[in-house]
Specification:
It is a single chain. The chain is α/β, with parallel strands linked by helices. The chain has eight helices and eleven strands. Strands 3-2-4-5-1-6-7-8-9 form a nine-stranded mixed sheet, sandwiched between helices. The protein has a two-stranded antiparallel sheet with strand order 10-11.
Length: about 290
């Protein structure tokens, strides 16, 4: 649910211009709508950045790309080592963007290791995952999370690309036609819907919807049905009681600013550890070993 104390358009703009800290951007697409325009939009908003394109299924080098690499899924460690050589040094102020056109080809057991090996502070990884492509699971990894679940967990920002509802009024009929490989007209339109999910440092996720025009690079925030219902519920107590049950804008803003323990896993250097930051207002006795916050 989107928060009224945040400006969704400003947040999207900060993400695209790499001003909002995010190490791994996951782009989800379907047969009806491709996510190729998202990587191009990152390059358009960062003209001075080095763009490395890792191709799993793309044949020709896109025009906005600085370096074009063909991926070898049989040796992911060698691919990561080769990719790192194209990245600017850490002392270099230039930003770098790594575009992965299809993460479906990366084996499940090497997925997290491959992404964490190339993600760093000056580098943003923008990877695309095709939802409609079936995954071949190894029997040895039966109890291991699927590739999509794993990617959604480690991603700090998710772009879910979907076709606009007015283009295809009957969603069930569209899904049925795509399942039979009967491709309707009007798919992969330059104007489509983006469901943006961004995780803050506290681990709290913010979700917004946008109408995006890839030809013009223009995006417009659209309110979801859940947000409209929430706005109606906030006013349902008006005139029913002698006291106020609604929350003020100041109270909502204070609620949004609550910081939970920072998820160290977002820095890609530990496995999901939660770090507690000790403050001076905490009641702590040094002589009591059971109250050691560290």
């Amino acid at each position: 649910m989107a928060s009224s104390s945040h400006n969704p358009s400003i947040l999207l703009r900060r993400i695209l211009t790499l001003k909002e800290p995010t190490a791994f951007v996951l782009c989800l697409d379907r047969l009806e709508q491709s996510a190729n325009a998202i990587g191009q939009e990152f390059a358009r908003n960062n003209s001075d950045a080095v763009v490395i394109y890792v191709s799993f299924e793309t044949l020709n080098k896109p025009a906005y790309v600085t370096h074009f690499l063909e991926a070898n899924v049989h040796n992911m460690s060698k691919l990561a080592s080769n990719l790192i050589t194209y990245l600017p040094a850490q002392r270099d102020d230039r930003k770098s963007i790594v575009v992965l056109d299809a993460l479906n080809y990366v084996p499940n057991e090497h997925l997290s290791t491959f992404i964490t090996s190339i993600a760093s502070v000056p580098t943003v990884v923008v990877g695309t995952f095709h939802r409609d492509m079936p995954e071949l699971r190894s029997p040895a990894l039966e109890n291991y999370p699927s590739s999509l679940t794993l990617l959604q967990f480690i991603a700090t920002t998710i772009f879910d690309c979907r076709s606009l509802p007015q283009q295809h009024a009957n969603a069930e009929e569209l899904e049925s036609e795509l399942g039979c490989f009967s491709i309707p007209k009007g798919l992969n339109d330059p104007v489509f819907k983006i469901v943006l999910t961004h995780r803050r440092k506290s681990g709290r996720a913010l979700t917004y919807q946008f109408r995006y025009n890839s030809d013009k690079g223009d995006y417009q925030y659209t309110q979801s049905r859940e947000e409209e219902e929430t706005a109606e519920q906030e006013n349902m107590f008006e005139g029913l009681t002698t006291f106020n049950l609604n929350t003020s804008s100041r109270q909502k803003q204070a609620k949004e600013q609550i910081e939970l323990p920072f998820l160290e896993a977002q820095r890609f250097n530990t496995g999901g550890a939660i770090v507690y930051e000790f403050e001076k207002d905490d009641d702590y006795e040094e002589e009591d070993p059971y109250e050691d916050p560290f």
